[in-house]
Amino acid sequence: MHPLISAALAARERAHAPYSHFKVGAAIEDETGRIFTGCNVENASYGLSLCAERVAIFKAVSEGAGKLIRVAVVADTPSPTPPCGACRQILWEFMGDVPLLLANLSGQHETVQIGAMLPRAFDASFL
Ligand code: THU
Q1: CATH number of the domain within which 85 lies
Q2: What residue's CA is closest to ligand 1, atom 1?
Q3: Catalytic status, residue 53
Q4: Which of these is catalytic: 13, 29, 31, 53?
């Protein structure tokens, strides 16, 4: 198994998802090989919940990661779960067009580019 998928799998175990019971794990690698993980963290005030991908990104940024080169997301779904729209926007902002590894618990996995997940993205180039 790809080490980034293993890291996302381990992070998924720490998901705080008592409302949806849908656990997600994410892991992001920087150019030096450092790995930053995240899990979804829900709240009784549902709208305050944060997805695994954004937790991982914000941890990477706040912990001084270098250039972010790869991201993995793991969920327990029949086919690998893609990031939500909000997370695609955040991933694009901080990572750009990097490979996104999607995997489920049965070992199915695929790799797509972030750019392919968010066509005609809005970003700082328009400001
Ligand atoms: N969720 C993620 O963490 N990442 C995704 O890519 C999709 C959705 C979370 C949000 C919420 O805690 C639960 O999964 C159900 O939507």
Answers
A1: 3.40.140.10
A2: 51
A3: yes
A4: 53
